[in-house]
Amino acid sequence: SMPLFVFEEDTFDIKDIDKEGKFFEKVSRIECRSENYETDLTLDVNVNIYPLEIGDKFSLALSSTLNSDGTPDDGYYNQSSHETIADKYNFEYVMHGKVFKCETSKAANRIAVFASFGGLLMKLEGEPRNLNEIVLDERVYLLLRKL
Known about the structure:
The chain is mainly beta. The chain is built from 2 helices and 8 strands. The protein has helices at residues 85-88, 128-131; strands at 5-17, 27-34, 40-46, 57-63, 93-105, 110-117, 120-126, 139-146. The N and C termini lie far apart (30 Å). The mean pLDDT is 90.
């Protein structure tokens, strides 16, 4: 069976926000570092809906499905009766998107994964063993919860 999370839940600290300027009124680009796996994250977040500040901590996971039993879903987030992993793990902010690029740096033993969530971008960079479940062109859900 497929793993429920293609990127296991990890805790990130926000180190910087909009360091190159703010380009969209409702969106901020956050720069973060994980506490457990030395993973770096750059992420565009709709801060109108989900305000974040430097120094905030949040938990992030990536999943290929929202079904808590791990079965594939149809890619539409519906507020129906069955429990989603967002419900089960108390995630507050969910985005659905697609992995469009993976870059491997053999020398540094790091991999960078790029995804787009309706134009909001994510770059997740870390050791391959933590990111090797993520597949190019795969649809993914990004899930956040403030700590």
